[in-house]
């Protein structure tokens, strides 16, 4: 019978538990606190990911695209992320081995010729096996198509909803057919077809690309396009279908004025359930649900909405659903990521007050 | 004047029908308000008799004293009638027009008095009185003559009588229902009414017959809800359009939110928007309450749909979500753009037959668009339970069913309606069934009243009609209902006014021991729920919603349950937040099966 | 510069549920915008379809305002389209088709072929001297104004504020004309080409996930903390605490920036 020494070398696992290491040497240096670091010293090839940043960070869609490249890349293939626009965040968990940042090519400016020339220069210099881009509306979908149209010998697929090392698939014929093909060279990826969570970390080293610096210096966007500026529509005027933050009222909202000031404080668009609309509290075009509008906001704050099936159909694409409700057994509570049970009016009033304080504090800090 | 309109089939012999139609059909409508009926009999009867007698006595040169006395008596009667007319005019109800119509009692009184004095067989009249009498008579006659010739109030006498003879829906007078819309010949590029002269001449005649009594206005659900429609004003606008003028002289209630005096038209000028705004036309729920009320038997709904047709077919001008709905109908043959195969998914666990070619059934159940609605599926499940309890051999249409096109037709999209009608008829032709049953009065109406024009002749029954028959002949044994709450029944327009079915639902409720507390407006004069004619799709804003008004009707009498028989009514009435419970007749009956 | 000729490129679509041929909504928006622009500037308007002239979907475009549709049947499509668009000042089309590959590439390929600029995701267009001012769609309520030199291709975004008006009478009046079916170009190099295998049956696409070598404990953990957990329900506390929970959640997920 063998007895194991209880004071043997041990390490803290990802879940924070102490695990005895049976065979490993006593001193293991883990450079990353949670995930093993994947280093690719002897890379022979590249896959290239191109994406615009927003306010210095990459959105989920862009991160999914980098993750996709990282999952497909083998031990000898480096993932090179070419970020257009400022980058202030760390990309080690995103899957990039190497990063080139071109801050002057941010999405807020329309300079398709310059962007195309810059990315073409990078492509020319690293000769990637595959190019991945998020197929989005903040410039990557447009730039990706310009790239495909200019590199006409490369195979390409857009709006890819499924792929692995061997194939890609997308919907064709108006979403009625699923078409598959071998992995092409340029891949424009639809959102949410990749799990951005990776079990490993990467080095994400920044390298200054001399190539691109040269091209951007030599090119100016005089030609065909003239950017007249980006504007943001007031949240209250955004069509519900494209609103990113919606505060929605149901039968449980008695005081429309409080509700509206909450929406104003959160800079959110206003929606309503059918009951609230029928009640005359809101205009018909605010109605969300099967017989109204289908919305896909990042945040959906449902106040006093019990959550009829038709209504839940209308919010199926919303990312974070938060509910304020008096009844904990309402269907909305099952759908919501967070539910607060209580009096809607009281909680709305309190929220408005807290938001005012938070905004004031932020203002003071900034000043 | 009416000759500017389009030709219509007619013959001189129709003139002979006037007396019967006048005394029978028209007085059915007028007699609903006895005061006016009696006044009219006295005034008009007196006047007609007096004029006839004058013609007889002086025209044919009889100069008989007896006839003269008869004239005196006739003028007395007319004077009394006109006096009561004046009495009412002292406090004019809002629905009545003022202006020239306020003058009318005086001119009629003057006429009566004048003729009375002239005819008095007293030779010793002083000169002064004689001159006065003749002046009065002239003044009064002026109203009658000029009124008829130049479009004054008395125009209604001639136009009204001629309208009775040449009414565009002759069937109305042979105690048959005539509620189906007339179809357009699309191959001949008939695209509805663009300008006043596009109406048939007998329709124009009908508009001239209008006495501006405003009964349509009182009955109109859209007007009550503050939507920009007033059927009376609409007819008067068309009169103005025919005679080239503006609406500035209109003295009745305006379209809500549209001021008077800004619109004008002429026979060959496009109606929308210079004479009538599009939103006025799109406010109509096609409930036919105005037609039901009209003492001159004017067909308002035909006029409105006629003008809608032109907007839709030539400009694609339907507002709101109606555009999407019509596209759905064209592309999926469903109102909601849904999968036709899914229409009867809710019936999968009920073991219901789906009809197959070469397999005859007694009854074919056509559920309509309501079958996609989770609420109405409850009604349909109850109906199936009842049909099974009565051992009816029935089947549903399954994926073969296309929308009847009812909504498209009401919205003026005759092309889509005809496409769907022809498609459905072709499908029906491949199937063998004795009759069609439906729980949707809109399906009932289009299949029964409008498909025959395209060669589809079927026996179509509303579920309440069939269930009442089955219950009466003992095939369906109903128990006593447990329902003890105060209950009222809301008549769907397309069942009551469009199909004259008001008794079966009531008989069924009585047979299970439910007593019905009637609302003020019920039966053929029931108030619309707001769901017809595509009105929920065009969604023209008003002050309040029509279903709220209807629920208020029910709440006024303290009803706790509103029984219904239509998916549209169910959806509209259930959309009201604070309301009695809304239950279909089928649901109430199915519950009673437990107590057999 | 005055716009003398406008061309609209339309494709055949089909209803996603019934599969019935119909107009492609995005292209219809482009058509309606083009008709409005052509009417207000009395400009010549070409409505062009590359494909089968018998397609019943084309009748929809007549009803939606096209007086005449010119159909190009010759292949390859891009080259033959380009040959017919040489002296056009403005080309409008939808940003994505509903049929075929609907890759959204066609306007870009045409722009390269014709060597003219392209602006995509257009919500509104208006003419400013020799340029066209385009309002471009960006998510989250952002919009960009871009002036583009003509001739140019503009791809219309699905959210463009245009009301479609379907009129049966126009469908009856309109004409469909087939242009010379012989190809005017010799270049038949297949470009950006992939061999697609079509699956008529719908299935949900598989999500790509990194393979993970988890320990037994890790697997257990991931099994019990599954993603489709119900949400958190907060019952306790006063309204300040409850409001604070909401605010913290919003901050945690970067949904607010204060």
Summarize this entry quickly.
Chain B is mostly helical. Chain B has helices at 18-30, 34-59, 65-89, 100-119, 127-150, 155-166, 201-208, 215-219, 221-224, 231-242, 278-282, 289-293, 300-315, 322-332, 374-389, 406-410, 414-429, 441-450, 463-472, 503-511, 535-538, 546-556, 567-574, 585-592; strands spanning 245-246, 264-265, 361-365, 394-396, 433-438, 460-462, 487-489, 561-564, 581-584.
List keywords for this structure.
A: 367 residues, alpha/beta, Rossmann fold, 2 domains, 9-stranded mixed sheet, 5-stranded parallel sheet, B: 596 residues, mainly alpha, Fumarate Reductase Iron-sulfur Protein, Chain B, domain 2, 4 domains, 4-stranded parallel sheet, 3-stranded parallel sheet, 24 helices, 9 strands, 5% strand, elongated
SSE inventory with pairings:
The complex is a heterotrimer of chains A (about 375), B (about 600) and C (about 260).
Chain A lengths: L9 E3 L5 E3 L16 E2 L6 E8 L7 H13 L4 E8 L13 E5 L9 H15 L3 E5 L5 H11 L5 E8 L3 E6 L4 E6 L3 E4 L11 E2 L2 E2 L3 H9 L6 E8 L12 E5 L6 H10 L3 E4 L1 H5 L20 E5 L5 H6 L5 E6 L5 H5 L2 E4 L2 H23 L1
Parallel strand pairs in A: 3-12, 4-5, 4-7, 5-6, 6-13, 7-11, 8-11, 15-16, 15-17, 17-18, 18-19
Antiparallel strand pairs in A: 1-2, 8-9, 9-10
Helix pairs in contact in A: 2-4, 5-9
Chain B lengths: L17 H13 L3 H26 L5 H25 L10 H20 L7 H24 L4 H12 L34 H8 L6 H5 L1 H4 L6 H12 L2 E2 L17 E2 L12 H5 L6 H5 L6 H16 L6 H11 L28 E5 L8 H16 L4 E3 L9 H5 L3 H16 L3 E6 L2 H10 L9 E3 H10 L14 E3 L13 H9 L23 H4 L7 H11 L4 E4 L2 H8 L6 E4 H8 L4
Parallel strand pairs in B: 3-4, 3-5, 5-6, 7-8, 8-9
Antiparallel strand pairs in B: 1-2
Chain C lengths: L4 E6 L1 E3 L6 E3 L1 H17 L2 E7 L6 H7 L4 E5 L4 H8 L5 E5 L11 H9 L3 E11 L2 E8 L3 E8 L2 E5 L11 H6 L1 E4 L18 E3 L16 H9 L7 E3 L4 H14 L6
Parallel strand pairs in C: 1-4, 1-6, 4-5, 5-11, 6-10, 7-10
Antiparallel strand pairs in C: 2-3, 7-8, 8-9
Helix pairs in contact in C: 3-4
């Amino acid at each position: 019978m063998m007895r194991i020494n209880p004071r043997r070398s041990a390490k803290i696992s990802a879940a924070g538990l102490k695990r005895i290491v049976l065979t490993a040497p006593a001193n293991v240096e883990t450079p990353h606190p949670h995930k093993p670091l994947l280093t690719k010293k002897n890379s022979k090839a590249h896959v290239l990911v191109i994406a615009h940043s927003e306010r210095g960070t990459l959105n989920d869609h862009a991160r999914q695209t980098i993750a996709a490249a990282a999952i497909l890349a083998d031990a000898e293939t480096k993932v090179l992320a070419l970020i257009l626009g400022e980058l202030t965040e760390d990309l080690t968990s995103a899957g990039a081995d190497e990063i080139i940042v071109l801050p002057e090519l941010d999405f807020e400016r329309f300079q398709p010729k310059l962007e195309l020339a810059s990315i073409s220069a990078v492509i020319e210099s690293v000769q990637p096996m595959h190019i991945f881009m998020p197929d989005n509306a903040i410039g990557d979908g447009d730039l990706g198509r310009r790239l495909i149209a200019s590199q006409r010998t490369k195979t390409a697929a857009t709006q890819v909803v499924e792929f692995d090392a061997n194939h890609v698939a997308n919907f064709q014929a108006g979403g009625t057919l699923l078409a598959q093909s071998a992995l092409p060279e340029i891949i424009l990826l639809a959102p949410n077809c990749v799990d951005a969570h990776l079990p490993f970390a990467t080095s994400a080293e920044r390298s200054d690309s001399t190539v691109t610096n040269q091209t951007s210096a030599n090119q100016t966007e005089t030609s065909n396009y003239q950017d007249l500026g980006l504007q943001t529509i007031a949240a209250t005027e955004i069509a519900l279908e494209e609103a990113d933050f919606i505060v929605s009222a149901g039968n449980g909202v008695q005081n429309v004025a409080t509700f509206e000031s909450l929406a104003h404080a959160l800079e959110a668009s206003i929606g309503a359930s059918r009951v609230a609309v029928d009640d005359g509290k809101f205009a018909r075009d605010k109605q969300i649900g099967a017989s109204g509008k289908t919305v896909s906001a990042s945040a959906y704050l449902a106040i006093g909405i019990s959550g009829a099936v038709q209504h839940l159909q209308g919010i199926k694409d919303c990312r974070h659903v938060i509910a304020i409700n008096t009844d904990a057994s309402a269907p909305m509570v099952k759908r919501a990521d967070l539910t607060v049970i209580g009096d809607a009016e009281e909680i709305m009033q309190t929220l408005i007050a807290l938001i005012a304080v938070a905004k004031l504090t932020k203002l003071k800090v900034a000043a | 004047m009416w000759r500017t309109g389009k030709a219509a089939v007619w013959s001189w012999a129709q003139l002979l029908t006037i007396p019967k139609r006048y005394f029978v059909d028209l007085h059915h409508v007028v007699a609903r308000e006895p005061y006016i009926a009696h006044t009219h009999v006295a005034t008009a009867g007196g006047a007609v008799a007096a004029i006839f007698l004058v013609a007889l006595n002086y025209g044919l040169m009889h100069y008989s004293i007896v006839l003269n006395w008869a004239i005196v008596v006739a003028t007395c009667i007319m004077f009394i009638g006109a006096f009561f007319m004046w009495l009412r005019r002292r406090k004019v109800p809002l629905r009545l027009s003022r202006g020239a119509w306020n003058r009318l009692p005086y001119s009629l009184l003057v006429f009566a008095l004048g003729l009375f004095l002239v005819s008095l067989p007293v030779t010793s009249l002083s000169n002064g009185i004689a001159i006065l009498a003749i002046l009065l008579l002239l003044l009064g006659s002026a109203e009658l003559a000029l009124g008829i010739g130049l479009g004054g109030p008395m125009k209604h006498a001639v136009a009204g009588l001629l309208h009775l003879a040449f009414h565009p829906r002759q069937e109305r007078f042979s105690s048959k229902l005539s509620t189906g819309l007339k179809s357009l010949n699309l191959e001949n590029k008939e695209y509805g009414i663009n300008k006043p002269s596009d109406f048939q001449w007998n329709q124009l005649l009908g508009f001239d017959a209008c006495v501006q009594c405003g009964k349509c206005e009182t009955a109109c659900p859209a007007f009550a809800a503050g939507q920009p429609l007033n059927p009376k004003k609409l007819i008067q606008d068309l009169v103005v359009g025919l005679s080239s003028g503006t609406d500035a002289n209109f003295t009745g209630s305006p379209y809500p939110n549209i001021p008077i005096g800004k619109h004008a038209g002429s026979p060959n000028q496009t109606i929308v928007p210079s004479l009538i705004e599009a939103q006025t036309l799109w406010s109509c729920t096609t409930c036919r309450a105005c037609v039901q009320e009209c003492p001159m038997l004017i067909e308002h709904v035909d006029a409105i749909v006629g003008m809608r047709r032109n907007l839709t077919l030539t400009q694609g001008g339907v507002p709101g979500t109606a555009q999407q709905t019509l596209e759905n109908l064209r592309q999926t043959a469903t109102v909601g753009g849904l999968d036709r195969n899914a229409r009867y998914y809710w019936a999968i666990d009920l073991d219901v037959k789906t009809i197959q070619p070469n397999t005859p059934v007694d009854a074919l159940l056509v559920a309509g668009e309501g079958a996609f609605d989770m609420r109405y599926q409850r009604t349909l499940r109850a109906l199936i339970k009842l049909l099974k309890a009565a051992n009816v051999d029935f089947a549903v249409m399954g994926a073969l069913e296309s929308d009847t096109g009812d909504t498209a037709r009401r919205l003026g999209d005759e092309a889509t309606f005809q496409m769907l009608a022809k498609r459905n008829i072709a499908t029906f032709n491949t199937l063998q069934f004795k009759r069609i049953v439906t729980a949707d009065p809109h399906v009932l109406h289009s299949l029964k009243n409008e498909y025959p024009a395209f060669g589809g002749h079927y026996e179509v029954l509303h579920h309440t009609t069939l269930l009442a028959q089955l219950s009466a002949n003992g095939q369906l044994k109903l128990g006593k209902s447990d329902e003890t709450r105060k209950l009222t029944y809301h008549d769907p327009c397309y069942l009551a006014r469009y199909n004259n079915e008001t008794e079966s639902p009531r008989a069924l409720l009585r047979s299970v021991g439910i007593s019905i507390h009637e609302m003020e407006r019920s039966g053929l004069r029931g108030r619309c729920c707001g769901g017809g004619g595509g009105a929920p799709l065009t969604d023209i804003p008003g002050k309040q919603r029509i279903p709220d008004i209807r629920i208020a009707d029910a709440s006024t009498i303290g009803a706790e349950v509103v029984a219904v028989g239509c998916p549209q009514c169910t959806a509209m009435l259930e959309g009201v937040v604070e309301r009695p419970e809304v239950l279909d007749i089928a649901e109430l009956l199915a519950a009673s099966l437990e107590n057999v | 510069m005055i716009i003398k000729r406008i061309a609209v490129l339309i494709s055949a679509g089909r209803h996603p549920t019934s599969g019935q041929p119909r107009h492609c909504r995005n292209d219809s928006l482009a058509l309606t915008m083009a008709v409005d622009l052509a009417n207000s500037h009395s400009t010549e308007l070409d409505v062009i379809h590359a494909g089968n002239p018998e397609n019943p979907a084309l009748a929809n475009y007549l009803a939606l305002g096209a007086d005449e549709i010119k159909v190009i049947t010759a292949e390859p499509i891009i080259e033959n389209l380009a040959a017919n668009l040489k002296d056009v000042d403005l080309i409008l089309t939808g940003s994505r088709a509903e049929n075929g590959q609907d890759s959204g590439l066609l306007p870009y390929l045409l722009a390269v072929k014709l060597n003219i600029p392209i602006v995509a995701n257009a919500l509104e267009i208006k003419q400013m001297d020799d340029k066209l001012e385009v309002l471009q769609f960006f998510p989250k309520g952002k919009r960009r104004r871009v002036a583009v030199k003509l001739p140019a291709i503009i791809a219309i975004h699905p959210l463009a504020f245009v009301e479609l008006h379907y009129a049966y009478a126009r469908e009856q009046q309109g004409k469909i004309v087939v242009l010379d079916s012989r190809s005017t170009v010799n270049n038949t190099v297949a470009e950006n080409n992939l061999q697609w295998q079509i699956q008529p049956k719908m299935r949900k696409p598989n999500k790509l996930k990194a393979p993970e070598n988890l320990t037994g404990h890790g697997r257990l953990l991931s099994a019990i903390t599954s993603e489709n957990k119900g949400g958190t329900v907060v019952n306790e506390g006063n309204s300040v605490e409850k409001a604070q929970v909401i605010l913290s959640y919003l901050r945690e997920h970067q949904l607010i920036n204060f």
